[in-house]
Amino acid sequence: MKQTISARQFEEAYDICGAAVYRLAMIYLGRHADAEDVTQEVFLRLLYRAPNFADEAHQKRWLLQVAANLCRDQLRGFWRKRVTELKDTLPTAAPEEREALSAVANLPDTYRLPIHLYYYEGYSVAEIAEILKLSQSAVKMRLKRGREFLKIELEGAT
User: Is the entire prediction scored with pTM above 0.70?
Assistant: First the structure.
């Protein structure tokens, strides 16, 4: 059953989950404009298509699952391949953080999102499995292999 949320509930959801949705989209898509588009679409779906949530954690998982699905759809899209990327001029993080984020962003698609959700968003293996619609053993294996890729890349950079 769909719920209707108030403007206050919408703002609270955005304040609590907006950054996490944006970070997930950014990790997945790699472009600020695309991440902003996905974030906007996720919150429009919250406003018009949201189910009844058991609690705040359930709502956040739903938002991240919608974001992951939208990112996958966008990566499959025809126009994605025809866009020219512009150079970003936004302030950057500390060099150590940039190196780690760059290493995560350079992971193969299969490992990037589980690593991000586990280490940056703090989700458990079970929650990641639910968000990405995978088995828990598949998530564990992707985390293991992703860590192996990160270790190789980060050790090679030093």
Answer: no
